[in-house]
Amino acid sequence: MALARGRRSERGVDYWPGFVDALSTLILGIIFMLTVFAIVQFFLSQEVTGKDTALQRLSARIAQLTDLLSLEQTDKTSMEEQLAQLRATLATTEGERDRIKGLYDNLSGGNAAAQDKASELSGKLDAEKQVSLRALAQVEVLNQQIAALRRQLGAIEQALEVTEKKDRDSQSRIADLGQRLNVALAQRVQELSRYRSDFFGRLSAILGNRPDIRVVGDRFVLQSEVFFDTGQSVLKPEGRAELDKIASVLLDISAKIPQDINWVLRVDGHTDVRPIGGGRTNWDLSAARAIAVVQYLISKGMPPQRLVAAGFGEFQPIDPGNTEEAYSKNRRIELKLTER
To answer: I want to staple 288 with a disulfide (CB 3.0 to 4.6 A). Which of 48, 92, 233, 242 is the partner?
Structure first.
């Protein structure tokens, strides 16, 4: 026993079992931490998609560390450095996880906004569909109305064609009636011209070949001096005698003219340009002389509806000169047998 104690004394204190225990404890702690890290890694791998490469690198590092531990590396400093590296890697991984989680949250929010936008667009699309349906209905109604209008237009065109045909027939009849009327009027004019010629011819024969009484065209022209004194509108006795002759011819001719010929004897009074004074104008004088002739013929039996009195004053001269001869020609009474 003494020898054994002596040998133990010679060998000194044996620290190896304690060191093994400490190292085992450290390894167990590291293994525990690695186990926790593996669990965390599992949950991170479930939450973080698309980071398989980073986790694979971490798994490789963990496997390498396990291999190193399995080889019972004793360098505590190296183990601590490796543990620090592992912690840094873990922190980096956690930061990456947080960043990816933030991106995922943003993506989720963006998806919600996109869904809202899609819902809004879908609502607008439905509204546009409703508007399109209403527009199609209106178009259909308009098409029906257009078809009805076309039918009405066709009926109107047919009625217009019938009306135009009737109008053409009416125009033809009117043209025919116009031609017949023109022929009848021409006949009436010719007939009236015949009576006018007869009237003028008989007057010329009765009144004689006098220079102060003449036929000019379709008018019988008598100088005013035959009937009136200068500047007067009262018939002279010799003028009445001449009018008696004219009245007798008129009464004879008017009895022969058919009743359907609407004729009148127009008596026109004319003066020269010289004023007459007394507040009267030449127009007044010419009209008063024409009226005096008409009234006398009525007194002789001429129907009033066959007589017309007109005064022209000095405004229709036969001779525009300013000599006494020109003045004498312009002072006149004209008789014209014409249609009314």
So the answer is: 233
Nearest in space to 224 (alpha carbons), one of 303, 314, 302, 306: 314
If 0-12 CB within 10 Å is exposed, 13-18 middle and 19+ buried, where does residue 239 land?
Answer: buried
Helix (H) or strand (E) holding 172: helix 76-207
Residue 338: phi, psi to the nearest 5? Answer: -145, 170
Contacts of 73 (CB under 8 A, 6+ apart): 79
Please report which confidence band the pLDDT of residue 173 belongs to, taking 50, 70 and 90 as the band edges: confident
Task: Rank 201-210, 245-254, 268-277 by mean pLDDT and report only the highest.
Answer: 268-277
User: What's the token pair of residue 37?
Assistant: 């890290």
Which one, of 267, 258, 319, lies nearest residue 288 by Cα? 267
Eight-class DSSP state of 321: -
DSSP-derived 3-state class of residue 255? helix
Q: What mean pLDDT do residues 327-331 have?
A: 93
Domain ranges of the chain: 11-116, 190-339
State residue 260 phi and psi, 5-degree precision: -80, -5
Dist. CA 330–CA 319, nearest whole Å: 7
CA 242 to chain centre: 76
Tokens 């009405």: give the residue: 152
Given a contact cutoff of 8 angstroms between Cβ atoms, the answer to whether 34 and 65 are in contact is: yes
Between 40 and 234, the more confident residue is 234
Per-residue pLDDT, 55: 61
Question: If you classify domain 190-339 with CATH, what class do you get?
Answer: alpha beta
pLDDT of residue 99: 83
For the chain, the first-to-last Cα distance in angstroms comes to 189
Cβ atoms of residues 64 and 14 within 8 Å: no
pLDDT over threshold 90, residue 327: yes
Distance CA 156, CA 303 (A): 56
Please state, in angstroms and as integers, the Cα–Cα distance from residue 124 to each residue in 110, 137, 214, following that order. Answer: 21, 20, 104
Specify the pTM. Answer: 0.47
Return phi, psi of residue 263, to 5°: -120, 160
Distance of CA 79 to the CA centre of its chain: 96
